[in-house]
């Protein structure tokens, strides 16, 4: 594998996975933990609009991409379209369990409005940054099953399927951006990457934190108690943010490429697990 691009034998394969629309799950579906449930619900609430944003951002530049990359873009779009569909179904189950999602969605809508107001190349750079986040989270969900330990089985399968496909297409938007920026200096490309990631990080973490706190309030957990429980779940046990930290920081390295971390072994293991389930 060349560190300059995706593995030559990589195959991005859309899978027609569908969540069970009729299955019931506990309100606190992440092992009974209100903080873990709030974080995962908040992440899911960001996905439908976020993934539609990703699709639009790559489509704008699809025609100018090399033929092989255009094929990957088409598979990326199919995968992200399916993720949008299934997380809309998941989010409907979040509402059915008794959560009012209007407050969290207002935060997410404000975040998306700012992103949609940027010019097309900036939107592609935002997509690259957020795709790195999702790929890092995907790796952790597959490599560290304790994150979703005790979770509702059919919902855990949704997240494993999503993680598989996020890893597969983690370099598509990145390679498209690098192709689009081929005429500028390496320093300029790196500057665009790190500045965009820094701004996206502040916006993304703020949105997820505040949306999670709004959801936890509906479980009667507020103030310092809510913030402590959220901090503990994100940084200590299981420590989602702690587990993604090294992958996240790798993005700032000059010469970075998403496939410098070849984690396709996790895809094979997860697909076997899904098939068994």
Based on Cα principal axes, name the global outline.
globular
Largest sheet features: none
The gyration radius over C-alpha positions equals: 18 Å
Percent helix among the residues? 55-70%
DSSP strand count:
0
Low-pLDDT parts are none
The assembly state of the depicted protein chains is single chain
Structural class: mainly alpha
Question: Summed up, what is this model?
Answer:
The chain is mainly α and 277 residues long. The protein is built from ten helices and no strands.
Features:
mainly alpha
Give a verbal description of the structure.
It is built from 10 helices and no strands. Helix content is 69%, strand content 0%. The chain has 277 residues and is mainly α.
């Amino acid at each position: 594998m060349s560190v300059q691009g995706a593995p030559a034998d990589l195959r991005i394969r859309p899978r027609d996975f569908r969540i069970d629309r009729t299955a019931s799950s506990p309100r606190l579906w992440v092992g009974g933990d209100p903080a873990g449930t709030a974080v995962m619900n908040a992440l899911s609430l960001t996905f439908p609009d976020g993934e539609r944003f990703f699709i639009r951002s790559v489509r704008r530049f699809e025609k100018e991409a090399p033929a092989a990359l255009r094929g990957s873009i088409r598979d990326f779009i199919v995968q992200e379209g399916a993720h949008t569909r299934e997380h809309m179904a998941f989010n409907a189950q979040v509402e059915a369990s008794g959560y009012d999602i209007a407050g969290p969605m207002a935060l997410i809508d404000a975040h998306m409005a700012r992103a949609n107001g940027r010019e097309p190349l900036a939107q592609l750079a935002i997509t690259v940054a957020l795709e790195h986040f999702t790929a890092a989270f995907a790796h952790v969900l597959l490599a560290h099953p304790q994150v979703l330990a005790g979770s509702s089985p059919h919902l855990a399968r949704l997240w494993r399927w999503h993680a598989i496909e996020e890893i597969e297409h983690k370099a598509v938007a990145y390679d498209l951006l690098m192709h689009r920026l081929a005429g500028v200096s390496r320093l300029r490309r790196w500057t665009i990457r790190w500045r965009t990631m820094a701004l996206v990080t502040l916006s993304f973490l703020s949105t997820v934190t505040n949306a999670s706190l709004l959801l936890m309030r509906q479980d009667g957990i507020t103030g310092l108690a809510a913030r402590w429980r959220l901090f503990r779940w994100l940084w200590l046990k299981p420590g989602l943010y702690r587990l993604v930290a090294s992958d996240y920081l790798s993005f700032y390295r000059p010469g970075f490429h998403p496939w410098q971390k070849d984690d396709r072994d996790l895809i094979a293991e997860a697909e076997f697990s899904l098939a068994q389930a």
